[in-house]
User: Fold these one by one.
Assistant:
Number 1:
Amino acid sequence: MPDFNVRSDSVNVEQIMEQIRARIREKRGVDYTEQQIRDLAAVKLEKFLDPKGVRSDLLEQFRKVQPAYEPPELPNYEFEESTLYETHRGPLRFIRKLLNPLLKLLFNPNKLIQALHIQSKLNTMFAEREARREAARRATDQLTYELIHNLVVETTRLGIEVKNLKMRVESVGSRLEFNERRARALESVVVYKSGEGDVVAPAPSRPPAPPPAVAPRPQQSQSLAHPSQTSQPSQTSQPSPSGVGGGSPSPEGPGQRSRRRRRRRGRRGGGPAAGIMGGQGAAPQGGAPESSGPGGQHAADEGHDAADESQPVTRPADADAGQGPAKTDPDTQ
Amino acid sequence: MKLAVVVQRYGQAINGGAELHARYIAEHLAKHAQVEVLTTCATDYVTWRNELEAGVEPVNGVPVRRFRVKRERDPRLFGRRSDRVFEHRHSLGDELDWLDAEGPTSTALVDYISKHAGDYDFCLFFSYRYYHAYYGARAAAARAILVPTAERDAAIGLSIFPPLFRCVRALMYNSPEERAMIHAVSGNQNVPGVVVGIGSDVPQNPQPGRFRQKYSIRGPFAVYVGRIDQNKGCKELFEFFQGYLRDPSGKLTLVLIGNELLPIPEHPRIRHLGFVDDTDKFDAMAAAEVLIMPSYFESLSMVALEAWALGKPVLANGKCDVLKGQCIRSNAGLYYENYSEFSETLGAIEQNRWLSGALGRNGRQFFREQYDWPVIERKYLDMFERLKKEAPTKVLDPLPGWFDRRRQDLPAAEEVLAQLPTGPATPKAADAAPSAPSTGSGQGRRRA
């Protein structure tokens, strides 16, 4: 949502426009004016419109292979005023010259001379023009050839680059997916601590998998053997000592789950939030007399169960992770 | 005091900008003076076909004297001559031929003015670019007051007009930008001029709910009022608004009011209502979140003023100097010059209630101070008083002779236009401009 720093009744439109333009600049990095964008587009176009700008040595090679264009020798003639009367015989030339007025009396040879003279010049001119055109066409063909060649090269290069980028995107995507699953797995590992109300702690870093039949006893004895560790307030954000020590989640007995539910219900309905919070602070003392809240009271009363609850409990969602045991980042503990 | 208002078309059903302007001025000045309107029998500005009877008839209590147009406009001929004078080197004769082709060629009107100019104290000529204003003002130069309604288009670059701007007694400008442009093109700084503009009869209690109910419009919307035409910037508006529609955060619908001369994109959030009456128009503007003015060329946007009068912000095309200048001077509207700015400014007005409200309040105040009818009337009356005290001293330059008119030595009008200064007038210059008749030189302008 657009937000403006101007906060008074005296609006300054120019100031607001400055802010809007600044935000646009921030969004797209560089503030190109329309003219600059047009210039940039023109530069790109120019390169392709002028094939000389993207020349490689291919054209030279091409020219070496192809012979230079030689215009064909087209038949032509010279036609001047005296051409009609020319002869290598001197007397004949004299007689023709003598009788020329008589010839002109019978018809007008000048028109014929003029027409043929013009035709001769036109022939020459067209031949030259044709030669020039052909040369230009060939040069254009060569340039077109080179341009298309370069375009093909560039397209190929772009194709390879696109393929590389696709692979990178796939790689980044799979890493992202892995990280997401890892994050989900970490979030889903919840530990209920005894006497700490509903405080949730992340999973232990190394959840081992000891045989379930023998797991409960050592854990219980361990937690009872180290009451000071279980009662430390910092445990709300740290894995339980038993977890750290390599303890496994205790398999529940047949009535344990329902008992725990009843206890939780009792805690929730049992007192104000302040009391619960107080209980949270007091409960880790292992049923110390200062605990005043209902939660603390429950925890004190049911200290033996609290020991069980202090063990990490892996939720079924953990199995969704599919990456094996989730490793807890020490920084997050 | 007897006044003549000379305009190309006149009537209650005629809603063109300059024509409406002329009608409002005539009706409001009729309270202070004896006003007669001199106009043509045409109602269509494209053909100038004679559709009304010649003679005198009252319109809203103001006598209107109509004259026949000698010949209708030939659009092809006009187009050819426009190309000639706007884009190529040409002669004065070409420009006069262009003016003749543009029309409305009513020689009877000009003859009447030349014969009866003495019957009036002042003749107010509207729209400098038409035949009636050019020849009429020349015929009654000693009493002519020009309301140029000049836009930044190529016609201002024609060389027949600077002498016109210099020969009239006074000019009533619509905006400081227009004044600066005419000063730059004609050097008429010594001709008395004042930035006046025009007021509007905005209803006191528009009914937004009634409009929403009548047209089944729900949710917030932006409104455009005017001809839906490429020349009015509607094509660009459609492009930009379609881009805005792709942004999921934008909720505005675009409501279009006016005749359609351009295909309108099919989209559920673009609604075209066609031509509506004034009541619905004001109801729509009162119901809208913002009025959009996408036009590139305006001498004064009456619709924008009406929106401000109703306390609504305006989003204007920043490429139009006049609109941009109005937004800056009033602090009542934002402007855009490209899609990014359009999107951001529209979003800002839509989503920031405080900003929208503050712009609307400023607009209402700006309208009251500058464009309320008592203010407008007072400016006209002050100008008449001033001109009565001053004797006309200017001598009208005669038209060049036959050979001079055919000398191809005039630059293309668009070249002249390109050399004129651009950008809105600064607020400081604008503050000084409307307060008193000015002979300033257009200083204080800056390039955009």
Note: Residues 2-199+373-432 of chain B form a domain with the Rossmann fold fold (CATH 3.40.50.2000).
Number 2:
Amino acid sequence: MVPLLEVHGVSKVYGNTRVLNQVSLKVEPGEILAVLGHNGAGKSTLIKLISGVELPNEGSVLIQGKRVIMTSPLEAHKLGIGCVYQELHVIDGLTVAQNLFLGHEKTKKGLLDMQAMRHESRTLLESFGLSDLDPDSLGKELSHPQKQMIEILAAINMQIKVLLLDEPTSSLTLGEVDRLLDLMRLLAKKGLGIIFITHKLKEALAVSDHVTVLRNGSVVLADHVNNVHEEQLVEYIAGKRLVENTESNVSAHSDDSSEELLQVSHLSSGKALDASFTLQSGQVLGIYGLVGAGRTDILKALFGLEQITGGTITMSGQPYVPKTPTQALAAGLYYLTEDRKVDGFIPGLSVALNMVLPSLAAFEQNGMIKFRQIAAKVETFMRSLNIQVDRETPMANLSGGTQQKVLFARALLVPGIKILMLDEPTKGIDIGSKTEIHSLIRQLGREGYGVIVVSSEVEEIMAVSDRILVMASGRMVENYFLRGQTEEADLLRAALGGKSRVQSA
Amino acid sequence: MFNQRRVPKETGIFLILIGIIIVLGLVAPAFLTVSNVFNVLLNSTTIALLALGETFVLLTAGIDLSVGAVLALSGVVAAEAFGAHLPWEIATLLGILSGSAIGLFNGIVIHFTKVPPFIATFASLGIASSIPLILTSAVPIGIQNNVFQDIGQGFLFGVVPIAVLILLLMAVILHLGLTMSRFGIHVYATGGNREAARLAGINLAKMDIAVYTISGTLAGLGGIVLASRLGSGYPTAGSGTSLFEAISAAVVGGVSLFGGVGTIPGALIGAVIIGSLADGMNILNVNSYWQPLVIGLVILIAVTIDTIRTSRRRSVRITKVVADAMKPAESSRETMNAK
């Protein structure tokens, strides 16, 4: 069979850096190919080359055996390559049907034929098991996973042959992931070729036929999925055997030296209802739950970003009513958001300035910033957190894991910070850096910080927390005190809405 | 500030200015005389002052359309103050403060009502350009005061215009403020990523109000220089292309319309480029009807370069940038809750 898409020895060079080196892959009709790799391994560049955003410096791209040169995404589209990016582009003000036909609207005598589009949309939605979606719903009424489905279907509706999915499951909950994987299988069955870019090994193994692992711009593994197993993939991705160290460093903090940093009683805010818990210094508190369970709302309320509708908070014994982030920072709380790119850092500013942004006042003398002092401080933190970049590099040029470490350093630089709230601290971060960040979180606990970690990954919560709270539909349903005595399955069951056993700590 | 070890960012635009000067000097030897060079600088002063203030607003990804109108307001307010026999210091200060007041108003409206800057400052453009007409019934008011006259017409050592010295002094102060102070870094941060800046504890209300007030204050100062040069408070001063020349000067000088990128020296060089082109065309006897066309093309090229540069760097689609520019100043709470 002639492959739908064949990439032959492509390389891409930016300046002096070779980000892709002689990469080859192919996708046959009906095949799902998973592409795995670190951030910075070259996955994004590969997508850009295949989807016409950029041209390779070497090598060729063949579609159904014919060599093509794609100079724009539109051209790639016309040749049958559709790409669904992490950031979705469903238009809020248009209906589902209009989104599905965007750019190739059906017309009758020069006027839009809404009737036909609505009808075809319904057929399309039904054929992919999405009959619960109304073609007349507006884009803004859809949830994130629904938007993603619509975007995939819109690509299919344009008669594409190869579908590129860039980290499609990164913000989906478990059930939604399953639904997406089912959709992918269904599409493959209909003869489509799918390239599935992901960090998540389990998903890759569950759905794909072939896997390709990229490291430092080169293919280090390409095999049928039956010939590989998870451990082996981790090694290929990381390039080294990872030390399983999470179990060995159980909190060394003794109970008598810790003080109560935070007491939250019956807090309601946004989706969170009647949440009560305490946080001790030196403790890592994991909050587990599905996306939308109200976990983030608690953090936002504590940071003064979300209106508190009920309950009280005390910090180190004092009543605490957060109104603005500025106030929360002054009180000793730091919040690392879920979405670094959206609200975490200033892309055009240097690593150094991003790191000291909230603590600039400490480097000011007579109204002038002391850049030397900043440089010295930043270098110290870069060494201790193993950040290997020039401090003047713009933040945007760093990989996700490095950006996250810079933001950790930023939090630690703020004078008087006692509590760190980390929302999905390893989202979109490669496996190597993930382990590093997990041990960093453990270390922060040992150093006496109170840490709250919100995550939808059970493994992550289990790896870092001393105590785990489980949230479902806005309520705290479980409260596990001891680390190491919890089973993954317990957490999952609780999060999926088992018994509602609200406990106050 | 950001790349102390590397070549300053303004090098490129500075070389372009040198190129323009050399070309103009070759085709019109009169261009490169000392008195003409100062004349070019003097003629650029008002626009440059507007551009410096506008730079602060542009850096936060805002825009201030009211600066041209403030020129007239400030001049007329000063003239009225002289009419009321107030001393020159007070009259000048009142003129400048009238600009600050418009800027303060802009900042407050934009921050607290979330009206997009484009619309809010367009509204205050209307307000600021009406007040002088109402005050004067559209009749220019002459100013007879020797000290005040020297602001725009006086020379130090007989060659260096005082207005140019004022401009350079302002540029130095603003440059230091932008590169060496906490406030300056917060300006870049606010324009670079508004939400991230807020979460890093930056008080956005303070930032919005400060940058528009700075812009208005400098426009007020520009109005004083202009009134001094004209010898009167001219109720329709600045109603022409001043606003667009000021924004263009900043953009030609490398200040991005999309926020977070740009410098004071850049904006200053941009203003001098626009001024040199205008002056050069006068010397070359280019029909004055053609001059805005040439300047228009220069602006178009500069903005095009900025757009391409910005969209490459951030790989943001231009449509999104435009959509963002039309959004209210702070839609953060909404977007956060929508998640």
Note: Chain A is about 30% helix and 25% strand.
